Amino acid sequence: MKTPSLNDRPFSTAALETLQALPAGIWTLGFVSMFMDISSELVHSLLPLFMATVLGASMTTIGIIEGVAEATAAITKVFSGAISDYFGRRKLLAGLGYGLAAVTKPIFPLATTISWVFSARFIDRLGKGIRGAPRDALVADIAPRELRGAAYGLRQSLDSVGAFIGPLMAMALMLWLENDIRTVLWFAVVPALIAAGLLAFGVREPERTDFNSGVCNPLTFINVKRLPRRYWLIVLLGAVFTLARFSEAFLLLRAQDVGLPLGYVPLVLIIMNVVYTVSAYPAGIMADMLRQRALLIVGLTILVAADIVLAAARLPLLVFVGAALWGCHMGLTQGLFAKLVADNAPTELRGTAFGIFNLVGGGALLLASAVAGGLWSAFGAPATFFAGAAFAMLALLGLLTYRGKISDVQERPGHGNSAA
After folding, report:
1. What is the Cα–Cα distance from 337 to 335, expressed in whole angstroms?
2. C or N: which end of the chain has fewer Cβ atoms within 10 Å?
3. CB-based contact 317:44 (threshold 8 Å)
């Protein structure tokens, strides 16, 4: 199958044809992500406020909890990705991860102390870690190589649809229930169960022709060493991008800080994820057709602008603008990084490659979130976002001065797509 090309036809036509060419399993995985994100983002859009206003947690504590939670997900992804490579099965681990996330949702409204929230957040992110790398590798197993950027872009777009529906539901329910956060959090249970059911009954895992092809333990030094140098460059780039960006919880706290009423705070995530949704799939198409380095430069430039706007914000409108820019940055870069990892890793080590990538990124997020919380507590909100802008600018300068190609990989015999 020939990839629709911008040189042959208009971008809109190529994008539509690519959508029609994507396998049904990619669409189902996208809807699984969408329903789980409806559930998770409903919780996460209120959780920082719940911790700060109901449970009395400090900004430093919130930053550490958010960072530890995301780092837990990242560390777990290494092992779940390697296990999926070892057994040649992705769906079982992905299902376990989605199931764990679903069963934690009732814990949040029941929480009476910060330790309850920490435990629930930890288990929820443990589930995310278990499912993340196998699911991302499963996308690459199902999608033809020439459509991987579009496949990851579509999954990110549907994921982001859930990520703005969740906060939209949270905002509507907060207004309806007069800011009763505990009751609103109960509404996250149903979409989480739908996501787990969709994965269990709606996704068929393709047969792996490369199953255990010389890979006894994917996490041995010898096998990890087989990952090419270009892959490690992608890992480094992903970590740098994450260090320049911290937990989205600080966007919500910034909105409250400039005077947005409590019930309208989830609007920040709605705006961010609407832009994320609109930009992710076109960015995926462009990642298949254009130079990836240029897209990364544009994405990082937009992150610098987002941090500066958020640092200077004195009114909710500017926080909304900053959140929209943040979402545009995410849309341009997140699916692209997934494609770069898939393209630069051997098929039989793809789950391991995604796991390592997310481990490094999670460590960077833990550091970035802890520093952000400390800066906020010590110097106020503007210092947090100015620091993010400064680091993003340093990363941008590094990317501008780098003269090598980010990815020009050709599919190698025996390492190709196993389920076109």
Report:
1. 5
2. N
3. no
Whole-number Å distance between alpha carbons of 328 and 188: 26
Tokens of 392: 């993003």
| pLDDT value of residue 419 | 31
| pLDDT for 319 | 93
Q: Between vectors from CA 167 to CA 162 and to CA 172, what angle results, nearest 5°?
A: 120
Predicted local confidence at residue 121, as pLDDT: 86
Closest alpha carbon to 49 in 345, 211, 191, 252: 252
Q: What is the pTM of this model?
A: 0.65
CATH of 18-207+218-401, one of 2.40.50.40, 3.30.465.10, 3.40.30.10, 1.20.1250.20: 1.20.1250.20
In the prediction, which pLDDT does 307 show?
92
Q: List the domain boundaries for the chain.
A: 18-207+218-401
pLDDT of amino acid 416: 38
Spatial CB neighbours of 274, under 8 Å, sequence gap ≥ 6 = 160, 164, 324, 327
- What pLDDT digit, counting tens, does each position of 318-351 carry? 999 999 999 999 888 887 888 888 888 887 777 7
Q: Residue 412 has what pLDDT?
A: 42
Length of the chain equals 420
With 0-12 / 13-18 / 19 or more C-beta atoms within 10 angstroms meaning exposed / middle / buried, residue 183 is middle
Question: What span, in angstroms and rounded, lies between the C-alpha atoms of 92 and 351?
Answer: 13
Is 317 buried (19+), middle (13-18) or exposed (0-12) by CB count in 10 A?
Answer: exposed
How many whole angstroms from its chain centre is CA 1? 29
